[in-house]
């Protein structure tokens, strides 16, 4: 039962992505100038795909626990994120002034893969460091 609670951040992240995807093109155009005050280099919201799916990848890795530190866990993480990205793109086909874009799905996959690779790297570094502390020499 305790492992199921680890999926709450995944659900929250998916709901946040769904919420932003539900915004029409007009609504996003009114938000962009406000965001540009903090990030003047941002010309549109396309880079946010990397950020959103990086966060989703981290929450999926958290839900996976130690399995996230394996290549199998990494692949499952990316698969879950890409499948959610597919549903997100399909959902956008029903939102006014929005449309599905295969390039967005690629950005989603890159963000999720980056999160998964970061988790793999951190686990490997932690395991290497702890194994060095116990070597006899």
Describe this structure in words.
The chain has helices at residues 2-5, 8-21, 25-38, 48-64, 71-92, 102-132. The longest helix is centred in the C-terminal third of the chain and has 31 residues, at 102-132. The protein is elongated, with a radius of gyration of 18 Å. The mean pLDDT is 88. It has one domain (2-129). It starts with a helix and ends in a 5-residue tail after the last helix. Helix 4 packs across helix 5 (71-92) and helix 5 (71-92) runs antiparallel to helix 6 (102-132). It is an all-alpha fold and 137 residues long. It is built from six helices and no strands. It holds the Pfam family VanZ. The chain crosses the membrane at residues 48-63, 68-86, 106-123. Keywords: Membrane, Transmembrane, Transmembrane helix. It comes from Cohnella lupini. This is VanZ family protein.
Features:
137 residues; 6 helices; 74% helix
